Fold this sequence. Notes:
Chain A is built from twelve helices and twelve strands. Chain A is α/β, with parallel strands linked by helices. In chain A, α7 links the parallel β3 (118-121) and β4 (140-144). Chain A is elongated and about 85 Å long. The model of chain A has no long low-confidence stretch (mean pLDDT 91). β2 of chain A pairs antiparallel with β2 of chain B.
Amino acid sequence: xxxxxxxxxxxxxxTATVSRVVNDQAKVGKKCRERVKKIIEEVGxxxxxxxxxxxxxxxxxxxxxxxxxSMSFFSSLACGSEHASRENGYSLVMRxxxxxxxxxxxxxxxxxxxxxxxxILHSEYSDEQMLIKLAKEIPGLxxxxxxxxxxxxxxxxxxxxxxxxxxxxxxISKGHRDIAVITSVYQNRDPATRVQGVQVxxxxxxxxxxxxxxxxxxxxxxxxxxxxxxxxxxKEKFTAIVAYNDLMAIGAxxxxxxxxxxxxxxxxxxxxxxxxxxxxxxxxxxxxHYPIEEMAxxxxxxxxxxxxxxxxxxxNTHLFMANLVERDSVADLS
Amino acid sequence: xxxxxxxxxxxxxxTATVSRVVNDQAKVGKKCRERVKKIIEEVGxxxxxxxxxxxxxxxxxxxxxxxxxSMSFFSSLACGSEHASRENGYSLVMRxxxxxxxxxxxxxxxxxxxxxxxxILHSEYSDEQMLIKLAKEIPGLxxxxxxxxxxxxxxxxxxxxxxxxxxxxxxISKGHRDIAVITSVYQNRDPATRVQGVQVxxxxxxxxxxxxxxxxxxxxxxxxxxxxxxxxxxKEKFTAIVAYNDLMAIGAxxxxxxxxxxxxxxxxxxxxxxxxxxxxxxxxxxxxHYPIEEMAxxxxxxxxxxxxxxxxxxxNTHLFMANLVERDSVADLS
DNA sequence: CTGAAAGCGCTAACAG
DNA sequence: CTGTTAGCGCTTTCAG
Lengths: 334, 334
């Protein structure tokens, strides 16, 4: 491996000079610069990033921790982040937080110990106090999909309530009055917030979300099936379901068909997230598009600016909105 | 940030000693070790991995490059790799290869320049000669889903032909005689190999794959739809389709239903990969399970052993098999 | 505009 | 068993 020092020797200049031309810094004599460049080319010199990191205390890597990278939502998140990282000249290192006990914390600490100052965290477990403490230590720690008031300028999140209001309002505009909700038992507050959203939207239309039209289960396909079964067995009438996410929505569709009901003819189903699967199922799912990839890219840029421009003050709000994408799972009753 | 040197000073020992207890190496006096440990604990010392890497030329990171992390198949791959990386004490850094021109190569080189010696590559574009050259330079470069004879000991791949033979044989055992294939125009040789697999299986049963029952398109849902439309317009009769992958299979199912045909009653559809979507569509997809997560973990372990035990000779074959998972998209005609 | 020199934080012979 | 001493490859004052 050819080093900077060797280049310097061959070129008959000092290492400082070579370093300068490599990072095209400052004033280096034009001819001198040319010569060094030529030699670098000839001998195929490539800078050693590790050494650079050590010398200038940079890290050139940004970290991302999500519960489980193999889930579509999180892989989109990672993808957005990878793209932004690369554009900023950083490497993206990732960790799943799911498989270990103190998983999230361990992941973050491990990242920090690898000198990466910018970390994108999709936190599910840790409590706010812990996170606040960590944030002090790690200047580039940003939170995605979690709002912590004390750390507002580090939080990139979605207006869940507005989103589910939009969704509900849409259903109502299509003539639905008896709306059911299938939601999830989840670590964070998203499910509750979304249920609130439908309640508010219904209230605004002088409607009411009936307690036995709320079914709770796990946030996946099986959960969706279970929830719908519960709904069905309650004998309460409903013409539409707003689901916590696409997976539950798809489970719901399955359960509905299995019960001899047609979607959307007999009951409409509205999803959340707009994962790829929402175009794979039949009928294709009408759903709220979660701009997770954009959010991840945004969060990544924020994370690098947070460490590179520490003096700067950043605007306090990084709030995104979901938007409705109409496909085939909602019927027009009007 | 407290350094090893400071710990040494406080403990009244040399940095070498501290280094030894940190890496619990060699023989250090028991009391001495205890004392140092206590101090490390007290002052909250944490080793600097960058410095360590520079000093001992290790890298503690392994790289992975796939075309597009947001695709289910690749995110499973990444996930398997992340898990294995972590177990080996490495960080996983990833790169998409899709967005740039000389994308793959750039990604690998960038990884290499960041001193990561172990790289898992899902190569789509690069030619063999280039790869062989790279392999010489990077001891831990392993290829996933690509077989390069000269680099057999670095290739972790799937027996595509056997897999599609299995698939076809299954269809035949279910009474299907008129089998169609929808395949993909793709960078690598997989599609062709899989088509061969069905041809062989059919031949073994004195059947023949009719040329106009082979439709080619892109390897996604839209491609599947298109391919089926082509098949349908050929007027050639068929009772089953083997698809290049799950996405095409699902597209096929859509197109079939749109044409008024029922799956599996009128025509059966068999997928490949066993992605999550295969359980989201209706009917649920019978498909060949591609053990990509296991393969990725295996490849990752191989990659680290390749650099850590260079003297060792590794067995030449890292060949995996796909297995059939029966769901609801294939009818029994017999 | 360019060079000398002192590190960044840690490891690894080599002595003792 | 423990300390001394060079570095790893690059950056960065500080002189000149």
